Amino acid sequence: MNRPNNHHELIVSGIHLELTPSLKTFVKEKAERLFRHEEKIVRLRVELECDPKETVATRFKAKGHIVIHGPDMNATVEADECHKAVSLLVDKLDRMLGRRAQMDRVKRHHPHAVEMDVALPKAV
Fold this sequence. Notes:
The structure is a single chain. The chain is 36% helix and 27% strand. Strand 3 (60-68) and strand 4 (73-79) form a beta hairpin. It is α+β, with helices and mostly antiparallel strands. It has a single domain, classed as Ribosome hibernation promotion factor-like (Double Stranded RNA Binding Domain, 2-Layer Sandwich), CATH 3.30.160. It has two helices and four strands; from the N terminus they run βαβββα. The protein has a four-stranded mixed beta sheet, covered by helices on one side. The protein starts with 8 loop residues before the first strand and ends in a 15-residue tail after the last helix. Helix 1 (21-37) runs parallel beside helix 2. The protein has helices spanning 21-37, 82-109; strands spanning 9-15, 41-50, 60-68, 73-79.
């Protein structure tokens, strides 16, 4: 738990797409927002895909996979431009992390009763 904040793992890969240094930097800058909001993220994997056979509006796909303590999170977006797809992906993952944090707060502050099938022994 005593890890510095910049010790998160970010993996960027391109499918049918050449990753330029500027694109890698753009993804890294956008992903910093996610790491800043949620310190429990272990790894973020971003896959950028270009399919020239698709229509122009859905040519670029960005897929995100967050490995976090608890259930992992996945998201996919499509756009007409690669940088736009990355921005939309980070926005979607940020909303998912916010929703997850909200649910954790609700569960923490509003515990619910648990019914047990077996009778507990009486205290003496």
